[in-house]
Amino acid sequence: MSDAAVAQGRSPGSFWPKWRWLSSEHPLPWLLPASALMIIFGIYPLLYALWLSLHKRNPVTRANVFDPDYNWLKAFGDQRVWDAIGTTFLYTGIALVIQLVLGLLIALLLDSDRKGYGVLRALMTLPLVVPPAVTGMMFLLMLDGSFGVLSRSLYAVGLLSPQYPILANSSTALAGVLLADIWQWTPFMVLIMLAGLRSLPKEPFEAAAIDGATAVQAFFKLTLPMMSKVIAIAVLIRGIDLFRVFDYVKVMTDSGPGTATETLTSYSGRIYFNGDFPYASTLSLITLILVIIASSLFMKIFRVKL
């Protein structure tokens, strides 16, 4: 406390009464910024989407007329919505399995303290910093039927015919989109698996080695059971992100050929850009509901606690 403040009988905090809350133990001042961000970017858009879903869009006057069941009944009767839901679940399931298996295998290879492995682990983060739209454009060029390096390589080994380009064929277009997703997000699974592997205790593995257990036996009897919670959380986080995939589909195929690669989010995005905001909001809410149901079931079945 300064001499001037003591002489006048004032405490130093009285000079800055507006900033006294910085030394307060009450949690409200510290929660206000996060709460404001949550309300502005989370709760308000959700409530606005719910409000929009209760209205019908008039294409002539471009006015929203209150009709609470119109969009929901339209969505349940729209065969394209059901096809998009099926494609979304198929895309999510295939990507999850491949990314999980590759992520775990690569993590096992990189789980070493030998020289140079730290650099390799750091390099695994590079695909994650590339924007998904840029990744989609990159693979769109590499899978081009005329000059794409991946397509021409597959033609050279006889796995594909030039008459049926990957992204222009309804039976292979989804695989092409999955390729971009797997390339970019497998490192995410690798990093999570590596964190789990590096945190495992060494004693059980040393005891298993003394008892004569092979590396395969140690993996299935020790590594997998101890990594079960880490794997479950990684699958949950990645599954939620995969379910709302939009960038790769929009950039690489625009939901085509036809609707072969159309997911629920890409369909709602197409409707949104066509100007039917209430119906697009309804499909977005359906996506949210499906994500909540699927994640809740997953957490209950695998006993995941966040």
Ends apart, CA distance between termini? 46 Å
Q: Name the CATH superfamily classification.
A: MetI-like
Query: What is the CATH third-level topology name?
Result: MetI-like fold
- The first-level CATH class is given as Mainly Alpha
Number of helices: 14
Percent helix:
55-70%
In total, the number of domains comes to 1
* Proportion of residues in extended strands: under 5%
Radius of gyration using CA atoms only? 26 Å
The class by helix and strand makeup works out as mainly alpha
Low-confidence stretches: none
Largest sheet, described in full? 2 strands, antiparallel
Average pLDDT? 89
The CATH architecture: Orthogonal Bundle
Can you tell me the overall shape? globular
- Number-wise, the strands total 2
N-to-C series of helices and strands: HHEEHHHHHHHHHHHH
Strand order in the largest sheet? 1-2
Organism: Taklimakanibacter albus
Protein name: Sugar ABC transporter permease
Give a brief rundown of this model.
With 306 residues, this protein is mostly helical. The chain has helices spanning 3-7, 28-53, 70-76, 79-110, 117-123, 132-142, 149-156, 173-198, 203-210, 215-226, 228-243, 247-252, 264-273, 277-301; strands spanning 55-57, 64-66. The protein has a single domain (70-202, 211-301), classed as MetI-like fold.
